[in-house]
Predict the structure.
Amino acid sequence: MGGLIKSSIARKVAMALSGLFLVFFLLQHFSINFTSVFSPDLFNELSHFMGINPIVQFALQPILIFAVIFHFVMGFILELQNNRARAVKYAKYNGSANASWVSRNMIYSGLVVLAFLGLHFYDFWVPEIVYKYVEVNPEVPTRYYEELVHKFESPIRTGLYVLSFVFLALHLWHGFASSFQSVGFNNKYAVGATKFAKAFAILIPLGFVVIAVIHHFNH
Amino acid sequence: MNLTLKIWRQKDARSKGKIVDYPISGVEGDMSFLEMLDMLNEGLIEKGEEPVVFDHDCREGICGSCSLQIDGEPHGPDRFVTTCQLHMRKFNDGDTIYIEPFRAKAFPVIKDLMIDRSSFDRIQQAGGFISVNTSGNTIDANAIPIRKEDADQAMDAATCIGCGACVAACKNASAMLFTSAKVSQFSLLPQGQVEATERVMAMVNQMDEEGFGNCTNTGACEIECPKGISLENIARMNREYLKASLKG
């Protein structure tokens, strides 16, 4: 089992699995956010459930935070190792001849997503933790929708969200589809799975953008 | 055809190298790239200068000796050919061509464009073989039934000539395509099953020890491979490795 932790294949599989977990989380997040467009009540209900459910709060939330930290820390480690593997660089390197820009620049799209996560935590997660666990305020099951809409009043913040989701789409475009290859899934069925992953990479971030823009202009 | 060559010159493994410009004229489109370098070297020798050192052997695309990063791509801009099969008709009069060694920490430069690819040999030695009982009980390989699809895929993997273009093309200098081809050519056949667990573990461990980078699925290796080795081999190696790891 030692090889599973140390080898390049183990690191690759670990990146893929943590990425797939985050993709699953993203879908769940999108599903709840989407309800805010057509039913503030349903959005409040679902948000309240997520906010007070002990399994979500004390089991799933720590796993999610671990997956996020693991994914970006491992991403940095891999980037450093990969840079070391070619100490002397080419005078001319025609990367676009054989690989897409997105696949060659995952570290940059990932950094933008990471910066966005910082903003997102500052906007939603930290106030939520302070509200519930530091100030220990009483639960108001109807507060979530107003808080969400309030955040998207600012055009700058809405613009940053839109830009971040463009980079998230780029990151997913390569990352989601290539996670199948990493875990060894590359047969005739993988073609369909790859198409699904590419569609997901566009549609889900686009959905988040639409939600942010709708709330910005509806306010 | 008149060309300007920008060639990496490096005295030896310890010296610092640099790009040196060489104008060359009289290049014919029918010349191979290596013949063009031969012509350059003849000119350098006549002038009393040291010729450019580069790897080559069979000059028919099967030995895996020739290398060269040509204009930013391993084996040049053509597909499914090695440098020795690349012809100068791919270039135009007045072109400037960058010629560099395949770059990777695990492929140290010996001199100029010649590199040490013995790291590939060590990966192969770590597990790229099968053991056969030859004490009178040997079964003729032709007597063992093998599915046509498996035989074809094993043969496709075995066409890897170990040139290192996959490493040179990869932005991470990863050797996954080479190692996976050498794992696949055995893992698909009944003869390769006996040592399947040890083989993949040993070869991947050796690959990591040599200092190659990690695979990030850019697919550059598959595009640049002169033998068209498929990324499916990497997926197969990942499966083999996970299976072997769980077996312990």
Remarks:
- Chain B has eight helices and seven strands.
- The first strand of chain B starts at residue 3 and ends at 9.
- Helices of chain B lie at 33-46, 118-127, 148-158, 165-169, 176-187, 196-209, 220-224, 232-247.
- The mean pLDDT of chain B is 96.
